[in-house]
Design brief:
This protein is an alpha+beta fold. Strand 30 and strand 31 form a beta hairpin. Helix 2 packs across helix 5 and helix 2 packs across helix 11. The protein is globular and about 95 Å long. The two termini are 23 Å apart.
């Protein structure tokens, strides 16, 4: 490609909302343009990188027998009603009506559509297994789109689905896709971790995220310093060591007046007690059922773990009316002792093994001191409902858990029969009986993977692309455009590299050398072939390696062989 003809423009300024390196650099490098909030144009440089990521995905999935389809972006509400997600998915689902008044949505994901497609073709167990994927545009109406391609409303995604006869076969498909994702991200050339994860709106009970490690990552990952355990903080667990309770230490409960003080921070200051002396009590609606959730006062409740524990679709904090009906008091004064109405009480492990704690009195402007769980109230469920902290002990080996930031670029789910049962996607088994197919789901954010790669590979001068997904592997930079010798050398090297199948750009613009160098560093070509009059006097050309900054003088007639060998050796 001749850069003088390329549709792009590098820029010095960036939009004020571009807060992270990938957003800033991809905008400045002329790769993306914002059309609307969370919606972007992909310009030629970006699309070349995206297509390379897609090709890696296709090649690795083809090795494992996956088949590609293309499904509609527009989806009818009837399918979502069958699965039960139309009313539960939430405001991210962009819904609309056609001219006849029928309900539709723009697909944020394709579980319903793929299940419908398969059930129309599936008859016998002999047809399975199937593993079907697509690479397509999705739309999620994010409340706060941000960070460029990291969290947009419209985005390119690879989503795939496996269909098997039973759980064992499905988990074998899950393992195969897990290994495929490792191969994909290895080839792309990013540092990543596969971590245990919650399943969210997709469903199922087994999932791993593939996280690109980067300081700007939105996700917090807890990783063991001694073994391979790693999990998203929403999923991470740790070893809990229950304290010993001596009932002879229990003191009598006593109401104390706490006028106007509601939060634990306020009450702890008023009573001169540490926040760890409190039982935090929050009323939730878990699939519309009121549940009182308890945790030690200096910790926060992990709502994702509540969802998993109760296999719930929706977990919401109760409103003021429900709080008053159940506790007899306003928010801030709720506690597990003396509730006005009976309610299920669940507690985090941190609440057990404690003595003489402080809790809301279920009476406005009052708290109770000397509350003891083993004496003063009953707990229906004890489980892990908190967040793991730095320094907690690994649940596998008791090593120390350390925090990292990550960008989720892929996720694999074991779905089981969540969709096949509700949508009647079945097959006839060996005995001629109907059985629900067992499913898995596997996604990769294609644009997000490109952006995450930039987050991990850049410096003050611009992007440093891995060879595997660089828009161009090489740029040829003739410096003196008024020199016939320089122009001829540039043309010869360019045409020679093209003939070898190397993805090369020729900077044929009549710009000064410094301008070309800055553009080349900003865009991030892995190799720069620099042709100047002075070096040509000795039949030499300078080659700069973008990643290391190393500059090597190579004989003119050896340039294409050097470039070819470098790419072969360094491309994942």
């Amino acid at each position: 490609m001749r850069i003088g003809q390329m549709f792009y423009q590098t820029l010095k300024e960036v939009p004020k909302e571009a807060q992270i390196p990938s957003h800033q650099l991809m905008f400045r490098a002329g790769m993306i343009q914002q059309l609307s909030s969370g919606i972007y144009n992909y310009l030629p440089l970006a699309l070349k990188s995206i297509r390379k990521i897609e090709n890696i995905i296709r090649e690795e999935l083809a090795k494992r027998g996956c088949q590609e389809v293309l499904l509609p972006l527009v989806q009818p509400a009837e399918l979502w009603n069958e699965s039960g997600r139309w009313d539960f998915y939430g405001p991210e689902l962009l819904r609309f009506k056609d001219r006849k008044g029928n309900d539709f949505c723009l697909g944020p994901t394709h579980e319903e559509v793929i299940t419908d497609m398969v059930r129309k073709n599936l008859k016998s167990y002999k047809q399975l297994p199937w593993n079907i994927f697509q690479i397509q545009t999705k739309f999620r109406d994010e409340v706060r789109p941000r960070f460029g391609l990291m969290r947009g409303r419209e985005f390119i995604m690879k989503d795939g689905y496996s269909f098997d006869i039973d759980e064992d076969a499905s988990k074998e498909s899950y393992k195969k896709m897990y290994e495929a994702y490792e191969a994909i991200f290895d080839r792309i050339g990013v540092q990543y971790r596969a971590v245990e994860a919650v399943t969210g709106n997709i469903g199922g009970n087994l999932s791993h995220e593939f996280q690109v490690l980067a300081d700007s990552g939105e996700d917090l990952i807890m990783s063991c310093d001694n073994c391979d355990y790693a999990a998203n903080v929403e999923k991470a667990t740790s070893v809990y060591e229950k304290g010993t309770v001596d009932k002879s230490n229990f003191l009598d409960m006593e109401e104390v007046h706490t006028p106007g003080y509601k939060t634990i921070d306020e009450v702890s200051l008023f009573l001169k007690k540490e926040s760890s002396s409190f039982i935090k009590s929050l009323l939730y609606l878990i699939d519309a059922e009121p549940v009182l959730v308890l945790i030690i006062g200096d910790q926060e409740i992990n709502e994702a773990k509540l969802k998993v524990c109760f296999n719930a679709d929706i977990v919401l904090l109760a409103d003021d009316k429900i709080i008053d009906d159940i506790s007899g008091a306003g928010a801030g004064y709720v506690g597990p002792v003396g509730l006005s109405s009976p309610v299920k009480i669940v507690a985090d492990y941190s609440v057990t093994g404690l003595e003489n704690m402080i809790a809301g009195a279920n009476k406005d402007e009052y708290h109770i001191i000397n509350v003891n769980p083993e004496r003063d109230f009953n707990i229906d469920v004890i489980d892990d409902f908190g967040f793991v902290s730095e320094g907690d002990r690994c649940p596998k080996c008791r090593g120390v858990l350390d925090p990292y930031r990550g960008i989720e670029v892929g996720q694999v789910f074991y779905l089981g029969t969540k969709y096949s049962e509700s949508m009647k996607c079945t097959y006839l088994d060996q005995n001629g009986k109907d059985q629900p197919v067992v499913m898995g789901c596997y996604g990769i954010g294609v644009g997000r993977t490109m952006a995450a790669t930039v987050e991990q590979n850049h410096d003050d001068n611009g992007i440093i692309w891995p060879l595997s997904i660089a828009p161009f592997e090489v740029v040829v930079l003739p410096l003196q455009m008024n020199s016939e010798e320089v122009l001829a050398a540039g043309e010869t090297i360019y045409k020679d590299l093209v003939s070898k199948g190397i993805d090369v750009a020729l900077d044929d613009r009549s710009e000064r050398a410094g301008f070309k160098f800055k553009d080349a560093d900003l865009i991030g070509y892995p190799l720069q072939v620099v042709i100047g009059k002075k070096s040509l006097e000795n039949s030499l050309v300078e080659i700069k390696i973008r990643k290391s900054g190393e500059k090597i003088e190579v004989p003119l007639h050896d340039v294409s062989q050097y470039v070819e060998a470098f790419i072969k050796e360094n491309k994942n």
